[in-house]
Every structure is written in structure tokens, then in C-alpha cells.
What we know:
By secondary structure, the protein is mostly beta strands. The protein has one domain. The longest helix has 10 residues. The relative contact order is 0.21.
Amino acid sequence: MATTSPGFAERYFVNDPAACPTNAEEQDQLMDFANDGGLILEEDGFSSMEYFCSFEPDLQYHWDGYQVTTHVGHCQTPGPVFMPTLFTFVMTEEAPGEIALFDSNEYTTRFYSCTD
């Protein structure tokens, strides 16, 4: 499993739609967002500046119908500290471009497409 690198994927999602880059300075905007604690989701994991989660299999983006998939992986914080985790993702045709993440956290994390 590889850790993600903000700003380098063709398709990515952020947990705040207002953070989607709006100009040619895309990589710098994403790095600033991650530095401020924002999360960037790619097909093999998600990350912030000092928080990385990776999972397998890769996430497949489909909003036709109701799709629920569960992936195994881990999260890492500085130290390093590793936390084995199950990640369940939900995508629905009612919310194209949006991905809901259910994991060990109390709250659902929602990611929004910046590339659609």
C-alpha cells in the first residue's frame, strides 16, 4: 500500500468543496489545504500534511445506483504511529461526485470531487 501525495492524482476529492483549486496554482493550493488539516482522497488512500491513510483494494468511483465497498488498510501519524483500520465508502446516484467514508470515527467524513 502506498501513501498518497496531495496534488499529484488525476482525480481527487477533498473534505471541503470550497478548497477545490480554482487556478493554475493547483498544487500550492492543495498543499496549503493539507497544511491546514484538510483531507485529500485519492483511489488508494487519503491524507493531510501529517496524517496518512492507505487502503486496498483501490477505490473505484461509480455513482450509478448505490455502491458500498469496504477496504482494509491503516492510518499513520508522526512517531510513527500506525492504526489498522477498515474503511467503508458509500457512493450514490443521488449525490454524484460525493463519497461518504465510514470508519472508526464517530462522524461520517464526506469527500467532494474537484475534478468533475
